[in-house]
Amino acid sequence: MEPVGEGDQPGLASFTATTGTTAGPVVQAGHVHGDLRVEYPAPARAPSTPGRPVREIDDPGDLEVHPAIEVPGARGRLPSYVDRAHDEVLRARVRQVVDTGRSAVAVLVGGSSTGKTRACWEVLQMLPDDWRVWHPIEPGRPESVVDAVGDLSPRTLVWLNETHHYLLTPGSSLGEEVSARLRALLRDPARAPVVVLGTIWPEYWAELTTTPSFEQDGDRPKPDMHAQARALLVDSGIPVPDSFDGSALGTLRSTAWRDPRLAHALSYAEDGRITQYLAGVPALLERYDNAPVAARAVVDAALDARRLGHGVLLSHEYLQSAAPHYIVDDQWDLLPDDWLADALRYTGAPCRGSRGPLTRVRARPGRAEPDGHRYRVADYLEQAGGDRAVPDGVWEALTAHAPLEDLPRIGLAARRASVPAHAARIYARLAEAGDADALFIAADQFRRAHGADHAIAWLRERAVGGDPRAARGAADLLHKTGRAEEAVTWYRFAADAGDAISLHTATELLVALGREDEALRWLGALGPTAARLGGDMLRHAGRLDEAVTWYRRAAEAGDPQSTHALMSSLLRLGHVDEAVAWLRRRHGEGDGRAARLAAYLLLKAGRPHEAAEWGKLAEPKGSGSAEPTQSP
Q1: Contacts 24+ apart (CB under 8 A), 513-519
Q2: Global pTM?
């Protein structure tokens, strides 16, 4: 039998023919013709050099550079870059490799989203065009290095973002094998120059580079789990600060004017944590958009509370009470008993170094810890938050759990949202705390929500509890609804408890109802202000002689308005001498206004010489003319 020719099977160099059995090595392809089985080996894989030419890499996301916040007017995939001290160190190390041809390793050490990977991306731009970049990730990060590091060609940058994924392999020696192979690569002059460029968090750096203690494990010292990694990383670390400060902050400010993303971050990032804000906001939005039901509900409850006027810190009790109202019954029934704890763990996890959607706030040492836990919603979620209808249960939770100092803003939001029943309860809580204005706003909102009778009943209950303003409020509503007789009762109740406004209103209403004698009897039993009101009532009724008696009583008690009313009434009755005699006595008792008032009365009565004498008594020493010119 002749072998199958190349025309029949292109690329086949050999075959094995058998009848019923297979001879030779097992291979991957073949044909079957009746009983004849023809098999042939797979072609050998053509060798390839790992990595891509540096100028072909134009998407930062391919190398795991975090996307940045999007704001109106922003251009490009990444915000403008602001150099810091570590950038110059990193560039110098890479430049030395390019210039000298000697391989080296550089690892940026810093917390999450401090700008490590972005700094590495900037370094790529300075590499010559004949360099390649290899980012080993498949089938796994450490496995990829072990499989292909031997095929690297010179002028390759090995991109080990999140270096701990390559070197820390718990329960396996694979990380140490990666370290050993990278060390061999760096020492091989035939493959130089090569740069191994990595990023790592400080805690992982410490774990990999700390020399182990010589403790005993039974009869033997404990094994050194990271000897190869420690040797690989020696003198390679470049620290990256958590925040912008000093000259870096000044450079940032001078750059931000031309980049809206930097300007936004400069305005809103906490404590100079610019890179965390730029990278964290997209992660924050993703975390919120994809949150489980309970976690989403907790954040929504927090966002609505802030939108409605709640302060920055939200209580655990509020979240527990409000969040269920954002969850439909079917979902609520499926939640575990510890749904809130699960939700807060999800919302509290950091997003690339920035706050999660909703995080717990702890008191600083030396400051009093508030009763219960307090939580803060991420600033950017507040800025991006929309306007939605607030569930009734959320208003109730705010009424019960919001701090008193926040309730005026929340109450105003309820009035603007046209939910008077909730507004009434919010202002009622403020009224219970002693806010006089809140009492009347609450009554008005109760009236809007449930009618006047409900509001009056609420006010009466508070009045009986000892609040005279509530009695006045009830009387006002009764009067407005045409129930004047009942209104008088509650005005008098408030006046008897010391409410001056109700005293005036009750008197006027009694007069309007034709009950002057009753008003006088009532006023006569009260103090000086009440006596003046009795005088006013009698004067308006034309009973001036009686009014003088009431005014004198109030004036003797020290009421200045009654003194003037008394003098005016005596003058109209022609009893000037009686008035002057009364003022002389008052002047002798040390009343500084009496002499001036006497001078004025005498002048009005056409007795200027006497007026001048009294004017001298009223004149301070060293002043000019004592001629009285105006009413005191």
Answers
A1: 513/484, 513/485, 513/488, 516/541
A2: 0.63
